[in-house]
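Quick log. Single chain, no ligands specified.
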Amino acid sequence: MKAEIMNTETSPLKKIAPDVILGENVKIYDFVNLYGCEIGDNSKIGTFVEIQKGSKIGKNCKISSHTFICEGVTVEDDVFIGHGVTFINDKYPRATNGSGGLQTEDDWICVPTRIEKGASVGSGSTLLCGITVGQNAIVGAGSVAIADVPANAIVAGNPAKILRKIM
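-> predicted structure:
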C-alpha cells in the first residue's frame, strides 16, 4: 500500500500535488495542502496541515492537525509535531521588495530548520528559522523556540529556555 488518503471523498479543500513523494503506508487526513514535499514511510499527516515544497518529513512521524511546515524544514524520523505548530523560514519577512512590488522567491532567503530524530514539538509552538531541535528533545506546548535546542533537553516558554535534561 503506497498511501492511505483518509476519508477519500473528493474535496476541493484537499490538495495533494502530483510532485509530492509519499512513502509506504502514509496516512493523510482531509483538508491538507501538500506540494513539492517528501513524507516518509508510516507517517501520519493530520487534518488542516500544510507542508510546502522542499520540506522533508521522515519515517514514523506524526504531524498533528492545524500545523504549518514551510519550505526549508526537515523533520527526521520518529518525530512528533503537536497541533497548531508553526515553522518560520524567513528572518526578515516583508510583503514588498525594494521596488515596491510584491516579493517573489528571488527577493528573500529561505533559512532552513531541522528537527532531529525522536524529538517532540508541543502544540501551539512556534519555531523560528535557522535552528535545530536536537535528537529526543522536547519543546513544550506554546513555546517560542528562537535558538537551538540541545539533544535530550526539555525547553519551554517564550523564549524557550532549558528546563532540564532527559536522562
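The radius of gyration is 16 Å.
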